[in-house]
Amino acid sequence: MAIVVVLAGSWLGYQRLADKGCSGQIKLTVAAATEIAPAVEQAAQQWTSKGAEVNGTCVAVSVSGVNPATMASTIALKHGVALTGLGAASKSATVPDVWIADSTTWLMRLRSEASGFVPTDGKSIATSPVVVAMPEPVAQSVGWPDRKLGWGDLLKRITTGNSLRTGIVDPTRDAAGLAGLLALGSAAGGGPEAKAAQVGALRALAAGSSSLREDLLQKFPTSTDPADLASGISAAPLSEEDVVSFNAEKPVVPLAALYLDPQPPSLDYPFAVMPEVDLTKSAAATGLREALQQPGFKNELAKVGLRAPDGSVGAGFAAPVGAPKATPAATSAANGTEGTAAAGRDAGSINQALGSWAAITLPGRVLAVFDVSGSMKTKVPTAGGIDRAAVTRGAASQGLALFDDKWAVGTWVFSTEMDGSKPYKEIVPITPLTSGRAKLQASISQIKPKDGGDTGLYDTALAAYKSVQDSWQAGRVNSVLLFTDGKNDNPDGISRATLIAELKKLADPKRPVRMVIIGIGDGVDANELEAITSATSAGGVFIAPDPAKISEIFLEAISSRSGAAR
After folding, report:
1. Residue 130 parent element (H or E)
2. CA angle, 345 then 350 then 351, to 5°
3. Which of 79, 171, 227, 436 is 20 to 30 A from 139, alpha carbon to alpha carbon?
């Protein structure tokens, strides 16, 4: 509240029109998604030309167009974290005073990894619905523009051998791709058959994925020749603005925009003031954002194919055939916990979707280590009364089915005295799934509680870390994924202090190993688990108070690159 009061006091000095003139200069830097940058720059020039000031000091605004994935990488680097799928940012790159990404989901992803990333403002300044883009001849073959389709219809066409060749911009790098991924996941629903359909859709999308939007757009057919139509991309989740911009070039084969039911949250272009910005610049940023909310800005947005935050359009908007006159209004919050982009899309569901994508598309090596102590016999009421071990077997089986053949996986179980005096036992060494999938699937059946077995957590965690590091491979994410439902209980084993000291000694920047621990139920000590993972170079702790949710937590863990969640 004190900060709000100070900001309000500072803002008293701001005047949109400087009747008395101004001196000096407050330099406000703005990084905006490339498609909206021209509109923002035009509005900023008009605002500053009228004498924008804060407490008598002139405001100068510098606007640059930046791909949101690039800026997200830069911000992540500054906060000492990383986001799944994004490459390392240049150490010389700078964070602007204001970031206008294309979606609140970027803010949510950063916030889930970096607790210190708390931008302010966050009001939406534009919106663009997420659609499925199809070459018009292909769209006509599925009933466009007369027939209204849903995401479930698209899912069926993707997974039943239909002739649709789907594509997607890598959802770890593109907000529209992520929205499409979430919509398809929601359409799949729950249950084993639904999960199988979802995996099939993911694999189909991955086969036609692109790292960049421009690359995907070039994969659409360039002629109406049947062979060209059959070989090109025939459906991809994109933004309405992507379709408008593509068609503005007058291609031989225009794209149709299909507004599928239920409509996923639109791209909402949040105006986020970065956490490091001082009060004076923050006041200047508020002035700029107010300028972007003036009626004339809607027409500037229309010129670049975007809608106003309320979903309406300005003069000259080149609406695709079948486009609604207005779409749902966008509201967003800089902390990533509210807003249209977040409606039904919390950080957990986003990370689960990205975890699925990572398992399908990224090469990795993981040693999965499962607790089989006696407490794993505890029944789980929310899972029909089966025990924790059975729930864990189900999660392990689903996870293994999701991993692409680019992965290598190994399995251990642990309790006490599992292999002589050792509290752990290797079932299958880390093995490429190309040759070892059946053997690994069979190993899951050995996740059975040991009568009277305690929890040799510390010795097992150290041994697993050493094993993965000793067999470390470049070009892959090398991880330990340990499931446990209890605290360390092994009088003959090492102490927590010894474990932490040894892990710190082993840490090697040239051979990084992620240590991820999934706590099952309410018997785990989160502080104990976090002390373990904090001693390593990367990883996190993920708690499933309800063991029935292990599968969801597992996907979050796969997605996360540096954070922890509870």
Report:
1. strand 130-135
2. 150
3. 171
